[in-house]
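This part of the workshop introduces the protein records we will be handling. To make this concrete, we reproduce a full record directly below.
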Amino acid sequence: MELIFGSLASSLKIILIVFLMMVIVDFFEIKYRKRIRSFAKGFKQYIVTSFLGVTPGCVGAFASVSMYVHGVISFGAIVAAMIATSGDESFIMLAMFPEKALVIFSVLFVLGIIFGWFTDRLIGRFRLLERVSSCRECSILIHEGEEGTPEHFLKEHVYGHVIKKHIPKLFLWLFFTMLFLGVMEEYMQLEEILPSSTLLLMLIAILVGIIPESGPHLIFTVMFAQGLIPFSVILVSSIVQDGHGMLPMLSHSVKNTFVIKLFNVGFALLTGFVLLVLGL
């Protein structure tokens, strides 16, 4: 019973911090969306989308998808955004280990720029993908024209987006993850159960990262916070997974979603290999 109440108290404390951060991020994304979009030209598009991706939560990823399906940015730029984003798990990282989270975000930001640029060079050289011509946009992104009012922000973003769509699911995933790990640690010596091979842990993290949903990846976030997995595993997990930032792209093009994930998995494997060689 003590374990349940302890997990509940920790989850409530973290989710309150997450809620406040989500509201702040949504506000600033809305306020500066047009300026960000107008800046996304040439090489700067990789910087813009990596920045949007590394912004905690899914809003930056949604904005990147919106720009992509409207032909504002290239395929490499959307790959950059998905490499940089960690979905809602990024809020949990900031709440549980803020200093290390900032290091992870900084690395993801740089990797997003590099791999995004490289993706476009690769595609251009080998003609791997035809450019998207459709301009259909996921309805979750459309708030244009209304969002200048406080009423709209409170109703559509704070309540309709943050509270209804994120907080309940994220809280449940967090609570049960912490409870599960707590039980495993107390009764089964979790350190002995986890694979001793960092490579195997990376491969598991990559497989879980393919799931287009915030929640399943939280187990790696919590384990890293508890010192159970190394930096390389949480970084590889963050490269592959994008919370549900990919869902609007999935509704737009299954083919492009698959190819984006394929690039992300490939870059995660490359990064993981380099980190293993470096002993990180």
Summary: The chain has one domain: 23-153+190-278. The radius of gyration is 19 Å.
